[in-house]
């Protein structure tokens, strides 16, 4: 059952059925990658949609990783 088909009351039992071993997590990542690749990258008439999503994700992640440095830099005065 997909996550979008699960009702809020069934969320606990749905999570209990998931495989949280390293092999299960790696399999979920592989399935997600293949779905993304087949939907956005491996198409006949491809556009910039899939690549722009990867770029936007990279920009957001790099901003989150460097946020603490940016936050301290904000209050520094430049003389």
TrEMBL record:
Assembly, in brief, is: Component of the ATP synthase complex composed at least of ATP5F1A/subunit alpha, ATP5F1B/subunit beta, ATP5MC1/subunit c (homooctomer), MT-ATP6/subunit a, MT-ATP8/subunit 8, ATP5ME/subunit e, ATP5MF/subunit f, ATP5MG/subunit g, ATP5MK/subunit k, ATP5MJ/subunit j, ATP5F1C/subunit gamma, ATP5F1D/subunit delta, ATP5F1E/subunit epsilon, ATP5PF/subunit F6, ATP5PB/subunit b, ATP5PD/subunit d, ATP5PO/subunit OSCP.
| TM region positions | 47-67
Name of the featured protein: ATP synthase F(0) complex subunit f, mitochondrial
User: Cellular component terms, GO, for this chain's entry?
Assistant: mitochondrial inner membrane; proton-transporting ATP synthase complex
Origin species, per record, is Taeniopygia guttata (Zebra finch)
One Pfam family linked to the record: WRW
Broad class of the protein's primary localization = mitochondrion
**Which keywords are on file for this protein?**
Acetylation, ATP synthesis, CF(0), Hydrogen ion transport, Ion transport, Membrane, Mitochondrion, Mitochondrion inner membrane, Phosphoprotein, Transmembrane, Transmembrane helix, Transport
Q: Where in the cell is it found?
A: Mitochondrion inner membrane
Question: Is Mitochondrion set as a keyword in this record?
Answer: yes
């Amino acid at each position: 059952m997909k996550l979008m088909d699960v009702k809020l009351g069934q969320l606990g039992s749905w999570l209990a059925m998931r495989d949280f071993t390293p092999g299960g997590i790696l399999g979920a990542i592989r399935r997600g990658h293949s779905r993304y690749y087949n939907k956005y990258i491996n198409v006949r008439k491809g556009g910039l949609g899939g690549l722009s999503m990867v770029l936007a994700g990279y920009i957001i992640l790099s901003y989150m990783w460097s946020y603490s440095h940016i936050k301290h830099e904000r209050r520094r005065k430049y003389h």
